[in-house]
Write a structure and sequence with these properties.
With 489 residues, the protein is an alpha/beta fold. The protein has 20 helices and 13 strands. The protein folds into 2 domains: 322 residues, Rossmann fold (3-Layer(aba) Sandwich); 111 residues, Rhodanese-like domain (Oxidized Rhodanese, domain 1).
Length: 489
């Protein structure tokens, strides 16, 4: 077993090194492009006009102070700390006291990693690139799908099936070509996280599953990086800044981590993705923009500025007020990641012994019914074709999707009886059971999971049903096997 584990760890390290080499090659190519651009800018900057006196004094003070963290030997061919095109591009934020010259120089020097190039990552990356963050890294192993386009604004129809990081970088280069963009075309793993995070100053969690959120937070604590984390589903979102200020595990003045806020993951069966629960595009956009805002505040703040108290921002599009702020506790004394007695270590992460899937749980496709209690989509077609629409003794087709999905598309003469809340309805409305007595019942849902659960419940609560079966694969199988025009949503 030890040999198997060591081989697995070596393979993971090799893959991480391959990703680093690829990222370095991509960065080198971008640097060559920027060098050519900089040489052109350099000539135009020689004749830059005078600025207002106070800004000129600030600039010259920064240039002439060898102790300043952004001091560089003056370029005899460039009079000011920024080039004239940079002054023009960032002018509207440069004149704000919250940014100013020093803030812009911090942005230019900053290296920010965005994990997830989807609904959150796209707007966050756009505003960070627009603000002039010097280096942006993007981590994502997915490709663009058509269903992404209503909310993932950096992608486009002509880039469907392209890696999301490549699609996003194409968009971002059009927005600001003066940024170094580094693609990481793979999902983040425990073995690769620390190597990747070591090259950046700030991390944004723009993912959509607890397994990745715990991994990213753990890696930020171990690598000493502030984390801006957000999530969005349906019409609601959450935002928090974690591990700020970043301190070693056990330090009482460090900011709380994700495990401090959520010591235990939610039940696996309660985790709903955007594909299952839906998402309103502007909702995830709001949360991504807020992530960019918090990151800009972190970068541009003075090095000795005190971190604000930790809090959790809650957004609900249909509530009044839409925003609420919840104060968070400081680091937990028993936190597995950031306390003095932490169990999450660099070796446990890189060795692969940290199993985030096992920790968070995983919901496998439901498979609880025997073959005799299931029929195929083709069998359902045969049953429907042979049944008379006026036959009061014929089979009943129950559609257990929610009413919104049922309204999108449904089969003729089917009855909508949503799985959510079914047990309560069976208890409170005995007429449902009366209507099913002595009948053959077929149950269908979107994917063939909820229908199995419904069959199991109905069979146990309504023994008077003549027979009850579910449709294997649900309406996805119906579209694949029977009706290719059935909506794909």
């Amino acid at each position: 077993m030890d040999n198997v584990l060591s081989t697995s760890a070596v393979d993971a390290q090799v893959e991480a090194l391959r990703q680093q080499i690829q990222a370095t090659e991509d960065q080198l190519a971008q640097l060559r492009e920027q060098l050519a651009h900089a040489e052109q800018v350099q000539h135009r900057a020689r004749d830059a006009g005078k600025l207002e006196t106070d800004w000129q004094q600030e600039i010259m003070g920064a240039l002439n102070n060898p102790q300043h963290q952004y001091y560089q030997e003056p370029d005899p061919q460039q009079r000011f700390a920024l080039s004239n095109p940079e002054f023009k591009r960032y002018a509207r934020q440069l004149i704000m006291p919250q940014v100013g010259l020093q803030g812009q120089l911090r942005l230019k020097a900053a290296r920010v990693l965005i994990v997830g190039a989807g609904g959150l990552g796209c707007p966050a990356a756009a505003y960070l690139a627009g603000a002039g963050v010097g280096t942006l890294g993007l981590v994502d192993g997915d490709t663009v799908e058509e269903s992404n386009l209503h909310r993932q604004i950096a992608h486009s129809t002509d880039r469907v099936n392209v890696f999301k990081v490549d699609s996003a970088i194409t968009y971002l280069r059009g927005l600001n070509p003066n940024i170094i963009y580094i693609p990481h075309r793979a999902h983040l793993t425990p073995s690769s996280a620390l190597d990747i995070f070591s090259n950046y100053d700030f991390v944004l969690d723009c993912t959509d599953h607890p397994t990745s959120r715990y991994l990213i937070s753990d890696a930020c604590v171990l690598s000493g990086k502030p984390l801006v984390s957000a999530s969005a589903l349906r019409t609601e979102g959450q935002l928090t800044v974690l591990n700020n200020p970043p301190r070693a595990p056990g330090a009482s003045d460090g900011g709380p981590c994700y495990r401090c806020v959520f010591p235990r993951p939610p039940p696996a069966e309660s985790v709903v993705s955007c594909g299952e629960g839906g998402i309103l595009g502007p909702v995830v956009g709001v949360m991504g923009v807020l992530q960019a805002l918090e990151t800009l505040k972190l970068i541009t703040s003075a090095p000795d500025a005190a971190a604000p108290p930790p809090s959790l921002l809650l957004f609900s599009a249909y509530s009044i007020p839409q925003f609420r702020n919840v104060k968070l506790r400081s680091r937990r004394a028993d936190c597995a990641s950031c306390s003095a007695n932490h169990t999450v270590t660099e070796s446990s992460l890189t060795s692969g012994s940290m199993d985030y899937v096992a920790f968070c749980g995983v919901t496998n496709p439901v498979d609880i019914l025997p073959p005799s209690s299931r029929i195929s989509a083709g069998d359902l077609l045969s049953v429907l074709a042979s049944a008379s629409p006026h036959d009061d003794e014929g089979p009943i087709l129950l559609d257990v999707r929610d009413p919104t999905q049922f309204e999108l598309c449904s089969l003729p003469n089917s009855i909508n009886l949503p799985w959510q809340g079914l047990q309560t309805r069976l208890r409170d409305d005995r007429q449902i059971i009366e209507d099913l007595k002595g009948r053959d019942v077929l149950v269908v849902c979107k994917l063939g999971n909820d229908s199995q659960l419904a069959v199991q419940m109905l069979a146990s609560t309504t023994p008077e049903i003549n027979s009850i079966k579910d449709v294997r694969g649900g309406f996805r199988a119906w579209r694949d096997e029977v009706d290719s025009e059935w909506p794909d949503y």
